[in-house]
Amino acid sequence: MVTKVYSLLEILSLSRTHVNRECAIGRGLSIIRARDPKEARYIEFALRNMENFWNTIEGGGSVFGNATKDDLERLSIPWPENRSERRAIAHILGTLDDKIELNRRMSQTLEEMARALFKAWFVDFEPVRAKMQWRWRRGESLPGLPAHLYDLFPARLVDSQLGMIPEGWEVVSLKNITEVTCGKRPEKVLPEPQPNAQIPLWGGNGIMGYVKEPLYLTPILLTGRVGTLGSVFRVSSPCWPSDNTLVVIAREKIAFEFLYFQMKRFDYDALNRGSTQPLLTQSDLGGQEILYPSNSVLVEFHKHVSNYFANVNEKMNESQTLAALRDALLPRLIRGELRVKDAEKFLKERGL
User: Fold this and answer.
1) Which of 171, 229, 289, 308 is 20 to 30 Å from 103 at the Cα level?
2) Assigned domain for 223 exists
3) Going along the chain, which residue ranges are E strands?
């Protein structure tokens, strides 16, 4: 494969005003558009392989990192002379990206299905209201659920400190049904997973690095403690929560998914105690009152929703593998160190 090096100015149109679709961008962004739209994806991957360049020019600004239009125009990228070679590279890497995006959308749909069931049962109380409206009798099926599930729900609502709730259900503090604790700071953090450090380090915004050993082996719920508030993460694999997170451990396994959706309903802005930066205390989080259903309803919810999240976990694990594969192939393909046919064979053997 013959690969030359061209500047972006020779193969792109760089503009601050012209794009191929209607959009709006902020002052901190630049638009890079291929003169030939069919080359856009190869250029995208070539740019993603230029991490060292972005790090070099990042210090160009006085306060924030800055890449000017001139910087981009002077940037040189590998450019295989054979057009079909460029398209093949883009197709190989794009196939992996597309599969990762498909997994993300499917996972989002599965979580939305679980959230809809949570809302129907524990926010809108649809089974209870259906009984009240239809003058339900034991053993009857009503719209939405078979009779054996409707049998589990109360037939009326009663008043509580949280408003009207199903009769027999409780209002409890989070700390009464969970263990709420802080994460810890690890001794050493690596930016990317390594053979001896593949345990994700979680922060308030998500994964922020990798460490050698897990702090937790069993499923936990995470939310930000300082700096970033409001995101809630369901972590089912071994992990290390950083010291800027709060960890919530369900005392009953069947309550794990239920508590995840309950925590996502908290008003974290109202819980913020920080003056210079956001802060959520362990006691404030643990003191949050939630509605807690009967054990039989909780068991059924867990049974339904855990299947959804098992599929989500499977797709997340697959996407991590695909991302690692893409990141390993990208520099070798772009630099011409790996032949396209070899890469295609490699993916075909793995069913991709």
Assistant:
1) 229
2) yes
3) 3-7, 12-15, 31-34, 76-80, 157-160, 163-166, 170-173, 178-182, 199-203, 206-211, 220-224, 232-235, 240-241, 245-250, 289-292
Question: Per the domain annotation, does 156 fall within a domain?
Answer: no
16: confidence class by pLDDT, cuts 50, 70, 90: very low
In a domain, 274, yes or no: yes
- What tokens does 349 get? 């053997």
Residues 286 and 322 in one domain: no
If asked whether residues 324 and 228 sit together in one domain, one would say no
Measured distance CA(227)–CA(278) in Å, rounded: 5
Tell me whether residue 133 is in a domain: no
- Where on the phi/psi map is residue 227: left (φ > 0), alpha (ψ -120 to 50), or beta? left
pLDDT digits (tens, 9 = 90+) for 115-130: 999 999 999 998 898 8
Same domain as 7, residue 60: yes
pLDDT digits (tens, 9 = 90+) for 218-232: 999 999 999 999 999
**Of the candidate ranges 38-47, 132-141, 236-245, the one whose mean pLDDT is the lowest:** 132-141
For 9, residues 6+ apart whose C-beta sits below 8 A from its C-beta are 73, 74
Host domain of residue 328: 3-100+318-349
Q: Which is nearest to 80 in space by CA: 34, 33, 35, 39?
A: 39
Q: What is the CATH number of the domain that holds 189?
A: 3.90.220.20
Rg over CA atoms, the chain:
26
